[in-house]
Fold this sequence. Notes:
The chain is an alpha+beta fold. It is 21% helix and 44% strand. It has a 6-stranded antiparallel beta sheet, with helices on both faces.
Amino acid sequence: KFQVILGPSADGFAPNINVVDEPFPGTLDDYVKANLANVKKAFPDGKVVSPAEAFATDTGLEGRRVVVENTMQKTRLRQTFYFFAGEKAKLVVTCSAAASAPQDAAFDASMKSFRFP
């Protein structure tokens, strides 16, 4: 449904951005909490580096941003989640990179131009 964006590999992991939308009747903050609970279950060694904070795109679309680190297939990752709310669905954009080569500035810059109808 959505394209995945990949960058050059660092430490055996290609930074990437992927998008998932799903119906969720609750608030955006409830959606963030539910997603973080799922991340904690999937990655017991994970840690929140930056808790949920307000994030806005260049067009004023309000969302939330959370940064976590976890291990996936023996690679330590730094993942930034951007959460947005539509009328009937919520959307999470997951930006992942090797923790040894974080891409925080590039991910934030990319997400500033994000559009969600």
